[in-house]
Amino acid sequence: GTEQPPSSSLPLPTGVNLGSWLSLEDYFYVGPRGAAEVATPDDETVGMCLPPLHTGPDTGPMWNAETDLYGNLIDMEGGSVRDAIKIFHAFRTSFLDWEEELSQMAKLGIHHVRVPLSWCLTDHDPTNDDILGMEEDTADTSEKKGDYDAELHRRYTCVDPFFSSEAEAQKSDPTDDDDEVRWPAVPRPFLVSFLKVCAKHNIKVNFDLHTYPGGTSPGTFSGVWPRRPLFWKYDDPENVNDDVGRKLFRDFLTWVESLKKTDPAAFSGLGAITAMNEPAHLAGLFGPGSANPTVKSYLPSLPERVAKDYLVELNGNGETTQDTIVPDGPHLRALLWQRDAVALFRSTTLPDSGITLFINVHESIFTPSLVPADMDDDEKLAAATAIFGAWWAKTTTPEERATWAVIDMHRYHAWGPTCQGTVDGPPTGNYTCGDEEGTAQTLGRCAGWAGMYRDVMNEQLGDDDSARLASAEFSASTHHSVLHSCTDTTTLRKTYLAQVEAGNDAGVELFWWSWKMPHGGAFRPAWSFKHFLHRLGIDGFGPDESEIICGR
Fold this sequence. Notes:
Blueprint: E1 15-17, H1 66-75, H2 81-94, H3 98-108, E2 112-117, E3 121-122, H4 130-133, H5 142-156, E4 157-159, H6 161-169, E5 182-184, E6 186-187, H7 188-200, E7 204-209, H8 244-262, H9 264-267, E8 270-274, H10 304-315, H11 331-346, E9 356-361, H12 377-395, H13 398-403, E10 405-409, E11 421-422, E12 431-432, H14 436-446, H15 449-461, E13 469-474, H16 489-506, E14 508-512, H17 524-527, H18 529-536
Helix pairs in contact: 1-2, 8-11, 12-15, 14-16, 15-16
């Protein structure tokens, strides 16, 4: 066999994600005989467990996303509000060995972690809350039991306001439990403790606000899957002070900013905030100009006056000299929200405190009609990147882009038809696993995306390499289906090295998705960084596995 490089000679990304910890995704918990697709179809339920207290069919339900899991843990036979809260808390506290694994990252040379985080936070701490230690049978009447559950819900959950609004609009009872969508809250004291341990190991945290009420995109990562996303339906750009999404982001910034005074040790562990993850992902698949023109998009267009004013702000009043203009379309709603997020961040003391803002954009927000049909996939991606560049140029200043404002475009070979490699080869994949020539040709072209990203942004921004660019999610996976994806170490190593070397050369900050997934079954070789490093033979890394068998 080939001698493996020591970790000191392995090119590394800027950081890693701690995915599906404080914002759940089902495919991390499918067990050894679980699902095949990273993006679960809407007619399947694949989440099998949430260890250590929920390990399989004898301890709880299968699940799609964290909201249905929480609700079904309560509704199942023998379930309760208290037990559901305890199941989530036990999972969160046991998912990561803070001292051991953060030390492991630091020794490897990883000093940045992106933490996908729910919008639903609480100041209450289940670790030392007497109410969770009460015996439930002390509530000896249904009235007392109802009061007890209501207090637990108040402390440790958030009602999704948009699904409640939908229920009210449909003339059903908005207080009916069947119409209520509750999110399990993440305790702020828990986040503060984590920040302190990260600071101890010289690791900076990027809190990525991965979810918002209603769901900002379709997919399990939205937290409400398979329910239809509602966030953008209730977005209110004409009343920015009262708009729910903007207020949540503003409140999060206020809390983070307060740590400078209330807990400087915790604040020293903070490095960045991501305002929203993949806003309106896949919105371009629906509505006029899309592949599904008769299907109403979950991303409504801005009010006409708001859209007109925003286009003038971006492109001028018909007198622009810029080569790329930002076109009209539903995508303007998400871009305007992101512009407002930048303005909110700018108004705080966080930029002067060395904290970075990541603004994540995704090309799937655009309808295909916005780019010429005769372009190939690489050309279309470059055209979309240019639109984002033109928008970013009007949203930030050169000084901001060189310091605290980072534009972030995720890039996975697993979802790029011209970048995929498969065990069965074409037409499922662009190359066959083990085909050295085909692998080299495809990786050479697809890893070149980082250079294109830098060149196109430089052209649009005029910043001569000074603008900070990121791709805060990538992996070594060659196909989104583990039935087809290459799993041999040779191909995975080549895929990883091609992307990291190209990203480093282009000055693109890369974050691997994700650090660990011990219950991810066949997904682990290409998606778990710990398991991938084990495959490479890096000292100190064993298999990413658990004593608990998920689904048993």
